[in-house]
Design brief:
single chain; alpha/beta; Adenylosuccinate Synthetase, Chain A, domain 1; Adenylosuccinate Synthetase, subunit A, domain 2; 10-stranded mixed sheet; 4-stranded mixed sheet; 13 helices; binds magnesium ion
């Protein structure tokens, strides 16, 4: 089957951008199926660094077609800025990027509502969102008052829907901004954003189904990690969409029979941004070492990422809910000189051993990780291209993770650029 889903298995920032930049070379189409400008995918090559928010990493591979599908929430201002930034750096976007007419749009009032909720009730209601308006936009979609790109492109429809939304939300918005000011700002922006976005808009479900019919290779790229999934993540400390592989269908208008394999990306340790439980979090010098060596600062918000040991129940849950067939291990180089290394293999809660990631809020918050301790290793040269040349304890670490997870890693990443990767399998991902 010529399609593959590439997704994060933890709380995000697993290195999706790098891996899509590497494996996307083999694809014809690279597609975002959920999330929005909350994502921050970093791609480093030829001494250049790009951080992509809405546009799939495939845009950095010449001639690839990129799609922002209907499951994504698009901020017209952010996409305009992202396209302009890419064009300024000589990346051709026009004719290569297609945005679903059915994608819901983020407006300034969504960002106001996002921030208002974050700041309303103190620590108890704070999710630590990116404040990009993601939650309120998905809420409008489900509430059936959302505004889609196709609506935005029709001025009369848009004005009517905008009025409906402003009046529905006035009681909250008016605490932070004037409705008249907001309306004027949105309408003024629409005057130049509408003609700008028009050439990118199309029926991306049709585009993708036709491509699949012609046996083109399609890669679906998740915006977030599985533990941020609205259903299977650490609810309520999650994002407002489904990064899991099953959401490709609804997020792209592509039937499940068209989805081929699923590739999961796992970082050699764990990170998380924002609030919420993280059983293996390290609030000590080792956590700081991982943050400093791994440069663990948010690609979208710049916030320091919380760092901790590899959490196997987290990744095992991801393997299960996504139907992952192949894994990629990233950032093994960051563990250099961390000695010993711990791997969380289960949790303990109220005297009981939990092998699976729990669903109870109390259990997730209060469970204690059960660790296996393994010896550390020294620096890993990013020049290495053969698994056998890795330091012996690094090899043992990888093999031990495979055993605990019950799946093999097809790639081991040891640096930011796509060349800095070891391929451990001849098996095709397609
Ligand atoms: P994404 O959101 O999953 O695409 O990940 P981010 O781009 O937010 O964060 C991953 C960070 O790690 C980026 O700065 C990457 O350049 C970097 N990175 C990716 N793979 C590796 C690796 O194997 N080793 C190191 N040292 N850095 C990596
Ligand atoms: P990438 O693409 C890490 C987190 C936020 C917050 C929660 C909800 O870089 O993997 P939201 O703004 O989505 O309503 O915030 O989700 N979050 C991410 N954390 N990486 C991301 O994307 C994230 N996108 C959202 O920090 O905890
Ligand atoms: Mg990121």
């Amino acid at each position: 089957m010529p399609s593959v889903v590439v997704l994060g298995t933890q709380w995000g920032d697993e290195g999706k951008g790098k891996i899509v930049h590497l494996l996307g070379k083999q694809a014809d189409y690279i597609v975002r199926y959920q999330g929005g400008p909350n994502a921050g995918h970093t791609v480093v090559f030829d001494g250049k660094k790009f951080v992509l928010h809405l546009i799939p990493a495939g845009i950095l591979i010449p001639k690839k077609i990129c799609v922002i599908a209907n499951g994504v929430v698009v901020d017209p201002l952010s996409i305009h800025e992202e396209i302009k930034l890419l064009e300024q750096r000589d990346i051709k976007v026009k004719g290569r990027l297609f945005i679903s007419e059915l994608a819901h749009l983020i407006f300034p009032y969504h960002k106001i509502l996002d921030a208002a909720k974050e700041d309303a009730g103190g620590k108890s209601t704070k999710i630590g969102t990116t404040r990009k308006g993601i939650g309120p936009t998905y809420a409008d979609k489900v509430e059936r008052v959302g505004i889609r790109l196709i609506d935005y492109l029709e001025p009369d429809t848009f004005s009517r829907l905008l009025e409906q939304n402003l009046s529905l939300k006035a009681h909250i918005i008016e605490k932070y901004s004037s409705i008249d000011k907001l309306r004027a700002e949105i309408l003024e922006q629409a005057e130049y954003l509408r003609p700008f976005l028009q050439p990118f808009a199309c029926d991306t479900s049709k585009l993708l189904n036709e491509a699949l019919h012609k046996k083109k290779k399609v890669m679906f790229e998740s915006a977030q990690g599985t533990l941020l999934d609205i259903d299977f993540g650490t609810y309520p400390y999650v994002t407002s969409s489904n990064p899991i592989a099953g959401s490709v269908g609804a997020g792209c208008g592509v039937g499940p029979s068209k989805i081929g394999s699923v590739l999961g990306i796992a970082k050699a340790y764990t990170t998380r941004v924002g609030e919420g439980p993280m059983p293996t979090e390290l609030k000590d010098a080792v956590g700081e070492q991982l943050r400093a060596t791994g440069q663990e600062f948010g690609a979208t918000t710049g916030r320091p990422r919380r760092c901790g040991w590899f959490d196997a129940p987290v990744v095992r849950r991801s393997i299960m809910v996504n139907g992952i067939k192949d894994l990629v291990l990233t950032k093994i180089d960051v563990l250099a000189n961390v000695d010993p290394i711990k791997i969380c293999v289960a949790y303990k809660y109220k005297g009981k051993l939990l092998k699976d990631f729990p669903n109870s809020r109390a259990a997730i918050m209060e469970c204690e990780p059960v660790y296996e301790t393994v010896p550390g290793f020294g620096a890993i040269s990013s020049e290495l291209r053969n698994f056998k040349d890795l330091p012996s304890n690094a090899k043992k670490y990888v093999l031990r993770l495979e055993k605990i997870l019950g799946l093999k890693f097809t790639l081991v990443s040891l640096g930011k650029s796509r060349d800095e990767t070891i391929s451990t399998s001849k098996k095709s991902i397609w």
